[in-house]
Design goal:
162 residues, mainly beta, three-stranded antiparallel β-sheet
Length: 162
């Protein structure tokens, strides 16, 4: 009986030792990693539609003439911006035509708020968000307009302000 009692006691001690927590070296460590980012002001164009030139009452080829129509676009600057316009570039004109072209970009809600490609105007300042723009163009010459196609490209630039 003592033998059974001793055997039971030894088994109980071994069971407690097997289940007891063991001291171990730490195998895992944690570190917090932070992320920081900044979003800059950017401008994008969308919904751009080309214009049409027609002869106006002053003998100029213009978006304001008969059959003429302004081009349009929407610009979105996330923090506001400035709009400038470069002089129109003739992509196709009748051979021998000499004339001058000017582009004007304006706010359709306030046409007096505009900038022109002739270099006399300052940039058109726009607020953050979507902003509609009209693009008008005038082609003038000291001579008669020659028969043919007159195609121009106007580069409008939106510069994000800081």
């Amino acid at each position: 009986m003592i033998r059974r009692l001793t055997l039971t006691a030894v088994l109980a001690v071994l069971s407690v030792m097997a289940l007891a927590p063991k001291a171990q070296a730490q195998l895992a460590e944690e570190e917090a990693v932070e992320f920081i980012g900044a979003v800059g002001n950017v401008c994008t164009f969308n919904d751009t539609v080309g214009g049409t030139l027609g002869i106006d009452g002053e003998g100029e080829l213009s978006t304001l003439g008969d059959g003429g129509e302004a081009g349009s676009t929407t610009v979105n600057c996330t923090g506001g911006g400035e709009i400038t316009v470069a002089p129109p570039v003739a992509m196709e004109v009748p051979n021998g035509f000499t004339g001058e072209a000017t582009a004007i970009v304006s706010n359709p809600e306030d046409p007096t708020s505009a900038t022109a490609s002739d270099g006399d105007d300052e940039a058109l300042v726009i607020p953050a968000g979507d902003f509609d723009l009209d693009i008008d163009m005038i082609v003038s010459t000291d001579e008669e307009f020659l028969p043919g196609t007159y195609e121009y490209e106007v580069m409008v630039t939106a510069t994000a302000t800081e």
